[in-house]
Automatic annotation (TrEMBL):
This is HAD family hydrolase. GO terms for molecular function: hydrolase activity. Keywords: Hydrolase. The keyword Ion transport does not apply. Coiled coil: none annotated. It comes from Chryseobacterium arthrosphaerae. SUPFAM superfamilies: HAD-like. It comes from the Bacteria. InterPro entries: HAD-like_sf, HAD_2, HAD_sf, PGP-like_dom2.
Length: 96
């Protein structure tokens, strides 16, 4: 595999260039429904207060009284689905 040389790499870790909420909310809804933990679907804006927090803490807040073991199970399912749907992408731009 050839080694590509780039002058610059852009990392968007805070959602400035790409808002991950609309992408991941479907996965969270699917998993939380599969585990029968929510009655209504979450909307992207429902995640606003949680931006920057750990996923396990978000789950604990969304599902009150959930056990640590169930949190780990749900989180494992979410991570597995996110890995399948989110493909890492690097975009080359000549002259940037």
């Amino acid at each position: 595999m050839p080694i590509l040389k780039y002058k610059h790499l852009i990392f968007d870790l805070d959602g400035t260039l790409w808002d991950p909420r609309s992408t991941i909310i479907g996965i969270w809804n699917d998993v939380l429904h599969e585990h029968q933990l929510i009655e209504r679907e979450l909307k992207p804006e429902d995640m606003n207060p949680y931006m920057g927090l750990l996923a396990k803490d978000i789950i604990k807040d969304i599902v009150s009284g959930i056990s640590d073991q169930k949190v780990q199970e749900v989180l494992s399912n979410i991570i597995a689905k996110e890995k399948k749907s989110c493909v890492p992408v690097a975009v080359s731009c000549t002259g940037c």
